Amino acid sequence: MTAFSAMQRLVIAIAVLASFVTFLDGTVVTVALPAIRDELGGGITTQQWVVDAYLITLSALILLAGSLSDAYGRVRIMRIGLIAFGIASVAVAAAPEPVTLIIARAVQGAAGALLVPSSLALIMATMRGELQSRAIGVWTAFTTGAQIAGPLLGGLFVDLLSWRWVFLINVVPIGVTLVLLARLRLPDRPRGVRVDWWSGVLCAVGLGALVFALIEQPNLGWGSPAIWTPGIVGVALFIGFLVRQRHSPTPLMPLSLFSARNFAWGNLATLFIYAALSLNGFVVGVYLQEGAGLSATAAGLASLPITILMILLSSQAGAWAGRLGPRLFMTVGPLLMAVGALLLLTVAEEFDYWWQVLPAMIVLGLGLSLTVAPLTSAVLGAIDEDRSGIASAVNNAISRVAGLIVVAMLSTIVGGSLNLDGFHSAAWVTAALMAAGGVVSWIGIRKTAFAEPAPPS
């Protein structure tokens, strides 16, 4: 087994840390939502907006960020994103009322959009084949572990300090990443690629309008012009975005990428799987506090088995997928997660974590460990290195949009209230989405050969 060079190890460390802050901040907020509601006010709609304000800008701008990464250099874009993310995190922590908090979360998401495509593009530019699969496995273990560990860290900060400190967790990894970036010596010259800013506007405004309609619909109803007008406008703008991608000389989301079989089918699987993960993370984090009566720390600890399994198994799963192909792992993993979601149906009014939640967390962790690294390798390995930044951005945008839409539809899924019946409804929907991801993977994913990149000069 080929060992990573010193430069490749540095690239992996930077990629992990840069992505860590965005993944962490996407999930750390879930256990803080009840505390935010208690201090600043607002019901489930405000809680949805605190999550989705971040996801809207992250999802809508991540495509633009991928294009910027390819055009102006991955290291430069990453450095800008890290500094902006740190400033926005301080603004979130200092927010005096819900509107300011939501606006600051949106800015934070915009900064986060600059980080993920650049980090994965660094891996794609310096590694290929089995080595790349192993590197993506390491990246996956820690970044997905950050998603799962977020509720635990958030819970500790909420219980021991304040929910405001939850958003300052990023300061240390941001500082370390900036230091490591200064040590990285890779060619990172601008390529002179034109950036399609209008496509970025169409995508951002279209997604924002559509999500506004989905979140506010339970309050105002579909018959209200305040709902159906932005809904129609959002759909129209997003269709306009797709049409522009076909005709633009420099599209943010080149539709030609989807001619690669694994890229197209892998992104469809991503849509189902990440919608399920976002729904499950939100519902479990909030219900265990508001429904089961656990503290924020205990609610965060509930998902710790998933984190441990991800760290232990993801890198190995990535290596196996590099040798055997990703199809089997991308099929079995989501189906296992569907079983884990169904195990949450055992949660009852007389709550018992050890028998009702822990088995589900273990099965979910096993399935997630088998899925994420092979999925990332299948999608990005299907695209040549020159377009790795935009390919990474497309895949990450799809995963974020999936989470964005499912959280926006939360009130509809749970029947308006996150009580026990609503929790069970969310478990059924989660299982169905996971199963769909496994079936799509079995139908569409194939083993492909990787081309070795030229060594960096």
Automatic annotation (TrEMBL):
Q: Which Gene Ontology cellular component annotation is one that this UniProt entry carries? A: plasma membrane
Q: SUPFAM superfamilies given for it?
A: MFS general substrate transporter
Q: Which residues lie in coiled coils?
A: none
Cellular compartment(s)? Cell membrane
* Domain of life (superkingdom): Bacteria
Q: Which UniProt keywords apply?
A: Cell membrane, Membrane, Transmembrane, Transmembrane helix, Transport
Residue ranges of the Major facilitator superfamily (MFS) profile domain?
11-449
Gene Ontology molecular function: any one: transmembrane transporter activity
Query: What is the protein's membrane topology class?
Result: Multi-pass membrane protein
The membrane spanning regions, by residue number, are: 48-65, 77-96, 102-124, 136-157, 163-183, 195-215, 227-243, 264-288, 294-315, 327-347, 353-380, 401-420, 426-445
PROSITE patterns (alphabetical): MFS
Q: Which NCBIfam families match?
A: efflux_EmrB
Q: Name it.
A: EmrB/QacA subfamily drug resistance transporter
